[in-house]
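Page 47, continued from p. 46.
Same chain as before, 415 aa.
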Amino acid sequence: MKTSFKRWRIVLILTVLLLTTSTGYSTAVEASSHRQVIDTPQIFTSGAWSPNGQSVALSTVDGTIFVQSAITGQITNTLVQQSGPTFSVAWNPDGTKLATGGIDMKIRVWDTTTSQLLNTLSGHTDFVSAVIWSPEGSKIISGSSQDSQNFRIWDAATGKQLKGDNTGSIDRMAWSPDGTKLARVNIVGVDFVDVNTLDALSDFVLNHPEGPSSGYDVAAIAWGPDSKRLATGSGNGTVRIWDLDTKKIIVDHLHANEGQNVDPELDVVNALTFSADGSKLSSLSVDGTIRVWDTSTGKILNTMQVKDVTTTYGSVWSQYGGRLALADNTPNSAGTKAISANTIRIVVPFPSAEDLHATVKQCATVAVKSNLTTLLNSKQLQQFVTAVKALTSDQIPPACAADLIAVAEALQKAP
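Result:
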């Protein structure tokens, strides 16, 4: 794939309507799913989970942002900006605001309770491909492509630009779990920004050995839970895991798509997540295939073709990796340019007791960990769900609790 992924997002707007290729994989049963059908044709472009794990926001080609409850499956907010495609959406740390960026070169800040537009930040001279909040929520950070200052930092309260640098095109950004580094995706790989100075770490760059325009352009990234590894998914369907201490590839050429698709757009890896203990990595490709890998050996552990999906953009894994918000952009069976079934699903692909144990270990406090582990060991899943629902945010992060409940309920329903 020759195009950088900023431009690739423009390309997908034009090409996704023509994609009708189905895969040859067998279809696995969805363990758990909520589905919301959007009334008008939409093409999803990006997604983000709320900090409490209760909602997911997805942006679209026409600029509309949908906020869906991950619990009921209902659309709770619809934000309409009437300005063309929106390419990035991000929640602030307390979940009360959303920042969006898109083709009109502006960043908008929204109240998630009232759906009111609070502020519009202007300054970029090319479309905004990535937005993210600082960990404490006082700043908004944005990235663009062909811009004299393609990396900009804004005061979230006033909308004033605080800083701007030309660092090369930026497609997406993600904070490390320990909150010390911001990963920025560019055409040749990934570089990193220090949380305190918001300056680039000049000696901390991951460059694909094949170079730019080689098909290894990064379309998705995921931090390992210990902040010491980073996974990248590429336009040619390749997944890699990097050791951030040595800046070397430690697991290479995990082929998320094995030449299965006639159209190379369908091979793109557009979502990644590590398991809570870092032992597994899950990937989602544009054709709707989910794969799970052993992060030590690179061995594939599970494969699933999401039912009735042949094209998905904008999908995103939850913070603890238990759920996938899957944006279905599948064209209709007649092959026309109209999209007949635009849905947002909350899917638990491969529920397991092993993952429940790992997630409890990662995020529950010592005071409640023993009881939850005992319930899991005795296979009392309904009692486990009830116990997690009774916990306070001081005992377990709400996003972690939401994942545990969803995975446990899916495991109860699994064949």
